[in-house]
Amino acid sequence: xxxxxDCLNHADPTxxxxxxxxxxxxxxxxxxxxxxMPVVGRAVQxxxxxxxxxxxxxxxxxxxxxxxxxxxxxxxxxxxxxxxAWDLWYLGYNVSYFDDPAIGQSRSTDPAGTDxxxxxxxxxxxxxxxxDEHFLTSPGALQGSDGVWRLYYAGASFAIDGGFGKIGVLTxxxxxxWTPHATNPVFEGQPxxxxxx
Length: 197
Prior knowledge:
This protein is about 0% helix and about 40% strand. By secondary structure, the protein is an all-beta fold. Strands 8, 9, 10, 11 and 12 form a five-stranded antiparallel β-sheet that branches. It has a four-stranded antiparallel β-sheet with strand order 1-2-3-4, with no helix packed on it. It is globular and about 45 Å long.
């Protein structure tokens, strides 16, 4: 019930197992913090069901009004054994996800994944005229058996093809510094197909 930080919606869930063995679920939510902008919350599975944290784990009250990520949504998390912490990727924007979208990355300060410091800059922002200039969402990263990290995301340009969504990938050897793949987008639908966008 409103007013609470997550009373308007829950969306974009991403699942992980905590070092304690419990399942945790991070998600985007809307409510009465951050002037109605989306935030990232967390819930933990207990014997009686899911227990939602009393406060969000990533909230844009730590940023000024002109920050690149006054809104934060579509989280994705992966456990980083080397750092004994969670890495989290998310969509951030100031005006809207059509006007100034960017992808951010943060590492938790605790193994429970309850606190993610705000990064000063995004790890990726599309350039004008690119296939993904107008829309980004759903970043999700994994490390391949070759040791290379790959961060997949959806993107679109209204100027190029009317906004049909495609899939792009960023690669990294250290999981921190990312480079767009040379042949992005790496997956796109065919006109008239069920997955044209």
